[in-house]
Amino acid sequence: MSVARRLLGRRAFSSLLRPTVYAQFVAGENESEISQSMEKMSLLGLRPMLAVPIEEDLGESTGEKKYDDNMEAMLECVQISHSNTWSRDPMMQLKVTALLSPELCVKLTTLIAQQPYDLNLLVRAMDGEQINFPGLDESDLAHFLCSLRRLNQIAEASVNKVRVLVDAEYTYMNPALSLVTMAMMKKFNKDGAWIWNTYQCYLKESRSPLLEALRLSETEGFCLGVKLVRGAYMDKERKLAEKQGRPDPVHKCWEDTNDSYNGSLDVMLEDISKNPESSRIIVATHNEESVRRAAKRMEELGIANDGGSVCFGQLLGMCDHVSLTLAKEGYAVYKSVPYGSVDDTLPYLMRRAQENQTVLQGIRKERDLLKKELFRRLTLRGGRS
Prior knowledge:
Elements lengths: L1 H7 L1 H16 L5 H13 L3 E5 L12 H19 L8 E4 L7 H13 L4 H8 L11 H21 L4 E4 L7 H15 L6 E6 L6 H14 L3 E6 L4 H11 L9 H21 L4 E6 L3 H14 L8 E6 L4 H9 L4 E6 L3 H43 L1
Parallel strand pairs: 1-2, 1-8, 2-3, 3-4, 4-5, 5-6, 6-7, 7-8
Helix pairs in contact: 1-2, 2-14, 4-7, 5-8, 6-8, 11-12
EC number: 1.5.5.2
Enzyme class: oxidoreductase
GO molecular function, one term: FAD binding
């Protein structure tokens, strides 16, 4: 897509994408267009999870003014999410790297691996206190404090209105993202799950952070919100690991990722069945087997379809048959709905194209396995005749 944009130019590329890929995966550019899309979804029993697709990677940091502008965009997302007739227990997505530089996220990840930061210090910093964090120079400290206050402002605006789901990003910065997210949970999730964290089950080490989050929420006394996904950065994670000569952090095959996802799903559903007020989960997947597994376990554990503890999520423009079937059965179903211009949403659209390829590869793999099993059974039957 980026090559096509360079060849065609911005205007021609935008004209080409708007009625095609953009229209399928993006709700629109302004509140009027978004509302039209959301009203159609609401009539089908689906709920909104709006997303401002702003993020940064290493080398893209843009300065405090841009981060403040991004915060205003997030605050507008809070307002749009809860102030319309189609809003029912709305959610929204947030990327920390839209508010805190990736370079500092990487540095924080290294620092907290050596000496973990106390969540109470982050909460105090969110409240405006001038806290000194070990390992940060004057410039990094100033930026970190500004970023924590930006996150605090968004969380304050959303409490009792919109549930904020913080996205996971890359392994080299995720520990820092989880750190600030858990601090937000400690401050704002005393009476419910308003801030949620994301756990990427395509990672070999995904279970440990989830179990640690459950432990921490219990000891610190806050409600844990979990968005459980497979993950959307697989190709880059693998290439980077190969380039740096370190082990691949991603599960080696589709089946291992499925096992990882289903195992973490079981952990969360068991916890919810025992402590219904202590944690929440959105089963964010397009995998029908995982969806069926979740529905079956909910029934076995006595978790109500519409009780609020468990909901389901899919992307706008993907797996609508799964979303609509779940909604018809009375489950709470959210569609992740990005909005913005073609330029703003291009990185998101590129990942969707990549993800569709991965999904198709998985479907083909499942089809091939079914063919092999069918052939094996026919061969056995023929041998017995």
